[in-house]
Every structure is written in structure tokens, then in C-alpha cells.
């Protein structure tokens, strides 16, 4: 296997693993927010904001990993 | 619903598999050779759909099927050079497309146009700055003008008293007021705090401009400037500058001398905090860019499936498969309308959050940390 092929393979695998982690994280936040909203519907506005902030932070971390995948894919 | 969807997906997958074998079988019988021979997938004509070309930045505005309008090239390289189009820049014999410089002899005047659109000096002098207008820049400006026009007029109305003394008049004004009030009360005020009035104009302009840019891509012939990393980077840098110019003493103290932690930990903390300074706007830019680009790519890929099917199985099946792909595209399209609002909202909210974090006054909260942290670390 050539170096470039290995880099492409790594990029694909990396993107998949990143998605696993980010999906798990955002899913858990969604679950937590949904639970909280069901328990206290009057606080749903604040819960939603907090949920989006946490999801955004996870997304940010996932994007850093994805950028590495993109760099690998372009080698 | 999920069962139907699964059936449809499985069916399409099956069709795809079956088609490949059908192509292979066809080749075998045609050649009269017994041995297994699978046709190279690259050799099949998928039709002409240039997804990457449609997503990338170009130095012309194209209304496909109608006309193509070339934009002026402005190049700074030992003085200012302005050309009416890329073609005329190439005919000036000062600049040349990068491709023709690397492959000399291929350029024939009047026959071969620009290929890569990257201009280089023929005498080897480096181009200092390429300030050319591109289609993303133009759509970016259009979003800015639209924001100025609509909200400038709206502000005039409010100054005249309509909406303040009376109820807002007209559907446009009502709709804008719903969004503005929501953003001010739910996003800007809770995140920034007492000093929110100073930043509301910036955050509102940010929201509406990004919203317009996101929605442009959904219009026929429209482009999404936010699907370009330079545009989102410019927006994120603006936020970065505003955050750091409004940082309080506490904000900088938390970066360069985090209170309440052992001194030797500062060796680790300071680089991490400085890195965090830049990762915040970086994530802001990448988030918007990736979301917009992926949505656009998804729509084009979905529609491209029709052409792929037509190339694989013939035009009639391609046409038939449109029954499947057009509703899928419509679904993604509706999702993208939602994402356009959501991403504009998220960008605004994070900008507000970062500004709020920089403006935060900590008070005696630091002393508390000094008391608590050593106790818990033992």
C-alpha cells in the first residue's frame, strides 16, 4: 500500500470514528435535555440554550478531528 | 414510515448492485469472452455534473442556461493591474493562467480560455495580492446590502415612532420584530449581561446577514457564500476582534495568570488558554462552513444520483429514479431551510457567549477558588 493510499484510508476511518464519538456525545446531550424538558417544561428555554452550547462545543472538537481527516485526504 | 423508508433504501441498494452486474454481463457477452470481466467503474459515463465546481469559488457569475458574466480581475503585483475579465488578463501578456505557464505552448489566443483561474506573472514576479471579485464576494455584498436596506428602512420607521408608539405595521415589520426581540431577549441579554446594548447591533447584523447568505443558496442560480471558508473566517475574525478588544482585566488575568491554581501549573495553563483564544473563532468558522457546504453537497449529490442512474442503466431508468430522488432532495432542502436559521442562530449565540465571557466581572469568585481548590486537590 502506498503512503497516499494509507492516508486516504486513515482519513475515512478517522472520519467514521469522529462521527461515532460526536454522535454519542450529542445524543447524550439530547437525551439529557429531553429528560429535563419533560420534567420541567417551564425551564425548556434555558435547557435548550444550554443544550445548544454543549452540542456546539462537542461539534467544535469533532471539527478539529475532521480537519485532520481532510488534510489526510488531500495528501 | 420507517418500514417504507427501509424498503425504498434496500431497493435502491439492490438496484445499484444488480446494475453493476448487468453492465459486467453485457460486456462479457459483447466480447464473447467467458472469463469474469468487470468493467472499470470509472469508464462509465455518469453525465456531466460538476459538484465540486458548483461549490467552489469562481471568477464569474453564471446563470446557467442564460449567460455567464465575467468579473473583473484586480491583481496587485508591482502596481495595480485591473482587467475586465480573466480572458482579458490573459490577453494582456503580463499575466497568464497557472495551467498554461506549467504547460507552455498550449495556449492559443481566442481558442483556449482560462483553466485554473489562478493568475501568475509571465516574467516570474510573484503576485502580491489577488483582490479579484469572485461570485462569493458578490453574493456576500448582496447579503450586506440587503441587510442594510431592509433594516435601515426598518430603523427609520422605528425612529419615526411606528412600532414604538403604535403596533408594528405590515408583515415584514412584524416578522422582523419577532426575530429581533427574540434574539435580543433570549440570546444577547442573558449571555452578555448588563452591557448588552453595545453589542446588539453587531450580533443582529451578524444573524441577518448570515441568514440571508444561507438562504441565497436555496434560490435558483443562487450561491451560498457561507459555504466558503474565507467568508466564514472573515465573520469569525470580526467576532474574535470584538471579543478581545472588549476583554476585561479579569478576562486577560484568567488567560495569563489563572488565579487559584499552583504556580507550576501555569506552564501548562497559559499555552492552553492562548490556544483556546484562537480555537473558539476557528470552531465558529468551521462550524458554519461545514454545515452549509455539507447541505449543499448533499442536495447536489442527491440530484446527481438521477444522472448516475441514467448513466448506468439508461435514460429511462434515470428518469424513473427521479421519482425517488426528487422527494429525497425536497426533504434535504426543507432541512436546509431549517439549518440556515439554526446556523445563523448558533453563530450569533456563540458570538454573544464569547463576548459575554470576555466581559464577565468575577468579583470575589476568585477568592472562593483559592479557598476551595487547594483543599480539593489534596
Description:
The complex is a heterodimer of chains A (75) and B (378). Chain A has helices at residues 3-39, 44-73. By secondary structure, chain A is an all-alpha fold. The longest helix of chain A has 37 residues, at 3-39. In chain A, helix 1 packs antiparallel against helix 2 (44-73). Chain B has twelve helices and seven strands. Chain B has helices at residues 2-31, 51-55, 86-91, 98-102, 135-160, 171-192, 200-216, 229-245, 249-256, 266-313, 315-359, 365-377, and strands at 60-63, 67-70, 73-76, 80-83, 95-97, 119-121, 129-130. In chain B, the strands form three sheets. Chain B has a three-stranded antiparallel β-sheet with strand order 4-3-7. In chain B, strands 1-2 form a two-stranded antiparallel sheet. Classes of the chains: A mainly alpha (75), B mainly alpha (378). At the A-B interface, helix 2 of A face helix 10 and helix 11 of B.
Amino acid at each position: 500500500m502506498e503512503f497516499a493510499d494509507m492516508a486516504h484510508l486513515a482519513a475515512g476511518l478517522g472520519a467514521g470514528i469522529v462521527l461515532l464519538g460526536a454522535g454519542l456525545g450529542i445524543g447524550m446531550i439530547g437525551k439529557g435535555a429531553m429528560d429535563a424538558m419533560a420534567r420541567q417544561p417551564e425551564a425548556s428555554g434555558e435547557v435548550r440554550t444550554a443544550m445548544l452550547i454543549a452540542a456546539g462545543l462537542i461539534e467544535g472538537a469533532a471539527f478539529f478531528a475532521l480537519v485532520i481527516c481532510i488534510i489526510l485526504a488531500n495528501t | 414510515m420507517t418500514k417504507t423508508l427501509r424498503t425504498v433504501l434496500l431497493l435502491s441498494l439492490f438496484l445499484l448492485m444488480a446494475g453493476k452486474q448487468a453492465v459486467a454481463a453485457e460486456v462479457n457477452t459483447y466480447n464473447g469472452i467467458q472469463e469474469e470481466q468487470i468493467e472499470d467503474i470509472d469508464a462509465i459515463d455518469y453525465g456531466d455534473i460538476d459538484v465540486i465546481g458548483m461549490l467552489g469559488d469562481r471568477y464569474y457569475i453564471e446563470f446557467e442556461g442564460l449567460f455567464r458574466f465575467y468579473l473583473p480581475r484586480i491583481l496587485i503585483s508591482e502596481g495595480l493591474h485591473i482587467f475586465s475579465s480573466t480572458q482579458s488578463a490573459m490577453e494582456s501578456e503580463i499575466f497568464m493562467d497557472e495551467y498554461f505557464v506549467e504547460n507552455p505552448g498550449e495556449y492559443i489566443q481566442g481558442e483556449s480560455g482560462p483553466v485554473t483561474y489562478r493568475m501568475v506573472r509571465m516574467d516570474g514576479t510573484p503576485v502580491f495580492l489577488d483582490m479579484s471579485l469572485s461570485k462569493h464576494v458578490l453574493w456576500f455584498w448582496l447579503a450586506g446590502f440587503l441587510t442594510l436596506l431592509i433594516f435601515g428602512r426598518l430603523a427609520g420607521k422605528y425612529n419615526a415612532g411606528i412600532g414604538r408608539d403604535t403596533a408594528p405595521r405590515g408583515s415584514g415589520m412584524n416578522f422582523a420584530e419577532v426575530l429581533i426581540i427574540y434574539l435580543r431577549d433570549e440570546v444577547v441579554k442573558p449571555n452578555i449581561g448588563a452591557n448588552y446594548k453595545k453589542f446588539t447591533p453587531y450580533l443582529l447584523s451578524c444573524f441577518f446577514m448570515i441568514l440571508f447568505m444561507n438562504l441565497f443558496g436555496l434560490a435558483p442560480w443562487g450561491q451560498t457564500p457561507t459555504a466558503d471558508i474565507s467568508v466564514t473566517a472573515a465573520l469569525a475574525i470580526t467576532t474574535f476582534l470584538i471579543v478581545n478588544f472588549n476583554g476585561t482585566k479579569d478576562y486577560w488575568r484568567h488567560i495569563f495568570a489563572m488565579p487559584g491554581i499552583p504556580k507550576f501549573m501555569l506552564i501548562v495553563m497559559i499555552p492552553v488558554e492562548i490556544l483556546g483564544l484562537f480555537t473558539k473563532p476557528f470552531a465558529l468558522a468551521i462550524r458554519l462552513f461545514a454545515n452549509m457546504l455539507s447541505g449543499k453537497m448533499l442536495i447536489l449529490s442527491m440530484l446527481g444520483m438521477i444522472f448516475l442512474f441514467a448513466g448506468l442503466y439508461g435514460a429511462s431508468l434515470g428518469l424513473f429514479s427521479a421519482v425517488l430522488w426528487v422527494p429525497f432532495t425536497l426533504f434535504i432542502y426543507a432541512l436546509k431551510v431549517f439549518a440556515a436559521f439554526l446556523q445563523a442562530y448558533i453563530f450569533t449565540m456563540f458570538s454573544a457567549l464569547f463576548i459575554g465571557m470576555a466581559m464577565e466581572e468575577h468579583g470575589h469568585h476568585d477568592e472562593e477558588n483559592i479557598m476551595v481548590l487547594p483543599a480539593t486537590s489534596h
